[in-house]
Amino acid sequence: MGNTSFWSNRKVLITGHTGFKGTWLALWLQTLGADVTGYALLPSGEPNLFALSGLKHSIRSVIADIREREALLHTVLEVQPEVIIHMAAQPLVRYSYLNPVQTYEVNVLGTVLLLEAVRTAAAVGTPIKAVLNVTSDKCYENQEWLWGYREIDKLGGYDPYSSSKACAEFVTASYRNSYFNRKDYDSHGVSIATARAGNVIGGGDGAKDRIVPDCVRAILAGRKLLIRNPAATRPWQHVLEPLQGYLLLVQRMVERGAEVAEAWNFGPMDDGAKSVEWLVKKIGKMYGNDDFYELATGEHPHETDNLGLDSSKARHALGWQPVWNVEQALEKTVEWFKAYQKEEDMKSVCLQQLKAYTIAQASRDY
Predict the structure, then answer these.
(1) Where are the alpha helices (DSSP H) in the chain?
(2) pTM exceeding the 0.70 threshold for the entire prediction
(3) DSSP per residue, 173-232
C-alpha cells in the first residue's frame, strides 16, 4: 500500500485528521506503519468516517482548533514530528459566503499559526523535515479556461473560500522564502511545499453542499435534489488519488529537500473533468433512480463554470499518476455508501478499497 520502509515508525502530524480526506490519509499512513498524531476539531456530518474507521482508538488524537496558538505549538513540540501535513480547513465555498470571517481565520490565520509553530519548534531542535500545506484547485484566479491551470498560473479567488486558499499559498511561500529558503536548507533542513488537488469524491464524505453525499442523501430520502449549476465542469477524482500524491511528495521532500519545496498540482486524468449533471446522472443510474433531481431556480452565489488542473509537473518530476478514472472513482464511492447503508464493517470496507487501489496502481506501474 505504499513505501512501508519509508513510513514505518516515522512520526507524522496531520491537522484536520477527523475530516473526510484527513481520515483516509490517517488510515493509509497507519497501514504503512507510521506513528500518526492528529490535530483537529471533533468530526461533524453523517456518515462520520473518523468514527467508522476506528482511528479514534488507534492513533493519538488531539481535539483542538487550528486557531488555538498555544495548543498547536504544544502539540508540535510534544509530538516531535518529522512530517507535518496541514489539512485543517473550512472547505466549503457556499459556507464561506455566509461565514467569511471564520473562513479566513481558519484557512489563512490557521496556516500562519501552523507555520509559526513549525518555525518555533525547528529553532529548538524539533526534527521537522517536511511540511506539506494542502490548499485547493480553487486557489487559481479563474479565467474560465477550457484547459487546466498550471502551478505557474496566477493565484486569486472570487469567493471567500477560494480567496482564502490563495492567501494560504502566499503565506506558505512567504514563510518558505523568509525562514526556510533553499539557499539555507543545509542549516534549517525543513522542506515546505503546497499541494493543490481537484474535486475529491469517495466513501465517507458527509459534508453538506457536496454533490455526491447530497445525491446519496436525496436518493435514500426519496426527495428531489436541486442542482444549481448543472453545466459546471470540475476535475473529479477519487480521494485516494491526491492522497497518493501527497505521500509521494512528502517522501521526495524528505529525500530531496529544497529541490521539491514548491507548489504541486494533483488532478485527475484528462477525462476527469465532467459536468455536475453528468456526475449526478451517473450516480442516479448506479442507484436505479434517474429522476431524483431537478434544476434549482432563483439566484445563487457565484460559482465558476470551468475548472481544471494540469498535473504534468507531478507526473514528470515525481512519477505520480492517477490510477482510477472518474467512472471507477464513482463506482468505488457508491460501493462504499451502499455498504454503509447495509451497516457493514466500514473500516474493513475502507481497507479493502485501499488494497484495490494499490493493486491497480501496481498493475499500472508494471
Answers:
(1) 4-7, 20-31, 49-53, 69-79, 93-98, 100-104, 110-123, 160-179, 185-188, 211-221, 240-256, 276-286, 312-313, 326-341, 346-365
(2) yes
(3) HHHHHHHS-GGGHHHH--EEEEEEE-EEE-TT---TT-HHHHHHHHHHHT-PEEES-TT-
Is the distance from CB of 104 to CB of 167 less than 8 angstroms? yes
Using 70 as the pLDDT threshold, list the residues of the chain that sit under it. 1-2, 305, 365-366
CB atoms within 10 A of CB 180: 24
Please report the pLDDT score of residue 271 as a whole number. Answer: 79
Cα 100 from Cα 95, distance rounded (Å): 8
Q: Name the region of 33 (left: φ>0; alpha: ψ -120 to 50; beta: rest).
A: left
pLDDT, tens only, 82-101: 999 999 999 999 999 999 99
Number of Cβ within 10 Å of residue 188's Cβ equals 16
Three-class SS of residue 314?
A: helix
Q: What is the pLDDT of residue 152?
A: 97
